[in-house]
Amino acid sequence: MIELAQLRHLAAFHQSGTLSQAAEELHISQPALSRSMQKLEEELQVPLFERQKNKIRLNANGQMAVEHAQRILEDVKEMAEQVRALDRRSHTIALGNCAPAPGWSAVPVLSNLYPGMTISSEVQEIPQLIDGLRDGTYQIITLPYALADEAFYCQAAQKETLFLCLPPKHPCAQKVETGMNLEEIDGETVLLFSTLGFWHSVHVKLMPHSRFLIQHDRDTFSELVNTTMLPSFMTNLSVKYFGKNNDRVLVPLLNPEASVTFHFLCRKENYKKLKPFFRQLPKGE
């Protein structure tokens, strides 16, 4: 019977071109590789190589065998990846978020309701979230709007509202009572924290002439907020979970895009399992 190791050895020889190089890459001895190739020829009952003094190369049979070996090895790799992924999904509830905030409340609820499961949460672009819910990458996703799809169960949850976070001496800091539109500071340099999800596209759309200083480290971002005059953003949910910076004022934003209601979605066939979670979703803020 042909063994996978023999096919790997054949593919390695094809790629490297010499037995010595292939043996080195496979971390086996050259005689062991030669015996493996001879056994493969015996199994196939045809010669695969043209052998000359101090030289060996694939013949036509060998070239065809390599093509089949590569396809088989790729199929085996794909099978292993898909089986492992299925096993992970059976022990994991993967939450895909359009913004960070939904995960702040959802992950603790999921962990409490499903103690035997691993809970994963990440921020992703909206098209990838929808595709991921369809193909099983995610069991739950969040979107900043309702999605009508016969395959999905969709439920509204908390509302997130964006505020401009300004030092008191900023010219727009006096608009705490009246609010303002983001277009009024378009062109200014603004601090942003990374992994904002869909909120980043809102900033870019409403402030096309601004420069965004995106920070990937939370401590560095906080330090810049505390020590510079640069505008930044907070939301009602970030204030709830992380607190407000007392050295800054929060100015309400009047743009319709600055307020969204998050919706949680799952596939309808998974709703029965996830129903306890959907029953505990936070409403409003």
UniProtKB/TrEMBL annotation:
Domain of life, per lineage: Bacteria
DNA-binding in keyword set: yes
Family matches, as PROSITE patterns: HTH_LYSR
Residue ranges annotated for the HTH lysR-type domain, each copy included: 2-59
Pfam families named among the record's database cross-references: HTH_1, LysR_substrate
Family: Belongs to the LysR transcriptional regulatory family.
GO cellular component: protein-DNA complex
InterPro entries referenced in this protein's UniProt entry, alphabetically: LysR_HTH_N, LysR_subst-bd, WH-like_DNA-bd_sf, WH_DNA-bd_sf
Keywords for this protein: DNA-binding, Transcription, Transcription regulation
GO molecular function: DNA binding; DNA-binding transcription factor activity
Protein name, as recorded: DNA-binding transcriptional regulator, LysR family
